[in-house]
Every structure is written in C-alpha cells, then in structure tokens.
Amino acid sequence: IAKTQEKENVALKKIYVTSSPSRIQNELELLYQLRNSKNVCPLITAFRHEDQVVAVIPYYPHTDFRQQYRTFMVKDMRHYFRSLLTALVSVHKHGIIHRDIKPT
User: Which ranges constitute the DSSP H helices of 1-104?
Assistant: First the structure.
C-alpha cells in the first residue's frame, strides 16, 4: 500500500542572477543550516531553471506589513517583536549575523 503525501503550498524565492555563484551557494547553505531554527523560514529545496536559481520555502499566508502594523495593538507588537528576536537568537547561535532584516 502506497502512502499518500499531503499537498503542501510552497513559495518560490528567486535568487537574483546578479549575485555571484558563491553568494548564492552561501545563502542556500545558510538557509539549510537554519531549517530547524525557531521562527526562521526553512528551506525545503532549491533548483536551477536555466539561469535562475530558485529556493523553495513553505508558504505562509500573510498581510502586507505596511497595512498590518497600522492595526497592531500592544499585544500584537509584543508578539511580533518576540518572534523576530527569537529568530535572531536562533540565527546568531549558528554564528550568522543577519544584516538585511525586513518586517515580513
């Protein structure tokens, strides 16, 4: 009897072709290292299509942060910053300094 696989929605992250091959490899290796880190989006896999490198990551439904933050209550902001700082702690434990933190 074959097991059925659950269908999972994914997001595709295009990695700019203007990046050097070593930089692309470094980004993919870091995402792979962080795959089990709390509040860090894990890398499922990556592939190359013609000259484009694509990272496959889980899809998380979300609202544009520029709209969402306007409705934040104190408890929402507390949750947001706790999640962000928890992710940064996980990243730093791997000896990685993230220099491009975005709200989403």
Answer: 21-33, 65-68, 74-93
